[in-house]
Amino acid sequence: MARGKIQIKRIENSTNRQVTYSKRRNGLFKKANELTVLCDARVSIIMFSTSGKLHEYISPSTTTKQVFDQYQKTLGVDIWSSQYEKMQETLKKLKEANMNLRREIRKRMGECLNDMSFEDLRGLEQDMDTALNVIRERKNRVIANQIVTSTKKLRNVEEVHRNLLHEYEARARDEDPHYGLVDNEGDYGCVIGYQNGGQAPRDMFALRLQPNHPNLHSGAGSDLTTYSLLD
Predict the structure, then answer these.
(1) Number of alpha carbons in the 13 Å side-chain half-sphere of residue 190
(2) Where does the record place the K-box domain (predicted)?
(3) pLDDT band at residue 143, thresholds of 50, 70 and 90?
(4) Mean pLDDT computed over every residue of the chain
(5) For residue 79, pLDDT beyond 60
(6) How confident is the model at residue 216, as a pLDDT?
(7) Domains of the chain
(8) Which residues contact 18 (CB under 8 A, 6 or more apart)?
(9) How far apart are CA 81 and CA 99, in angstroms?
(10) Mean of the pLDDT values across residues 176-180?
(11) Neighbours of 59 (CB within 10 A)
């Protein structure tokens, strides 16, 4: 069955286009190799895909530079010189731009002002005022953000403090006999539990307690019971 003739036009589907490129590239390189072996020709092929990937074929024992040198000699042109001239022109423009930038920087540092006219100095002053306003606005935004962050942290700390204080007060009011009151400046070796609804001194802490051994007895006529601290 004869193959249908393929219409030569751009393949719209990107996948099919890449497959066709790969197949025909390999076929072209195969033909170039056959031409090199059969005819002792020097062949150089350089190809770029749509993605920018480089593919090349160079005859064995031959370099791309040798092929281009022979090409220039045969046609009487010098592509390297023209390329060098373009590079030199680009380098010159870059140097001029660099010198202008350095000059502008020195002016903003208060240097190289003697050759400037009054209008130039006035324009430079306006430019620096504009830049200063931008810097101040940025600085104020940074300070404002820091204040907001610090305020949020402070609120979190205050909330934790309130929760701890609320928990402490709730335990202090609790009638659970396992909680007693300890004088902040007294002896922490023992804890005094107040009985009969006695009022505790102001500077006290509520702690988890455990009664002493049952054989422990209080002093005669005392209304206080002594507890030992938990381990």
Answers:
(1) 9
(2) 84-174
(3) very high
(4) 76
(5) yes
(6) 45
(7) 14-76 (3.40.1810.10)
(8) 49, 50
(9) 27
(10) 50
(11) 19
Whose tokens are 């802490």? That residue is: 205
Residue 133: phi, psi to the nearest 5? -65, -40
Residue 152 scores a pLDDT above 50: yes
Phi, psi dihedral angles at 31 (to 5 degrees): -65, -40
pLDDT at 2: 56
Q: Are 108 and 128 in contact (CB under 8 A)?
A: yes
Over residues 56-66, the pLDDT tens digits come to 898 887 888 88
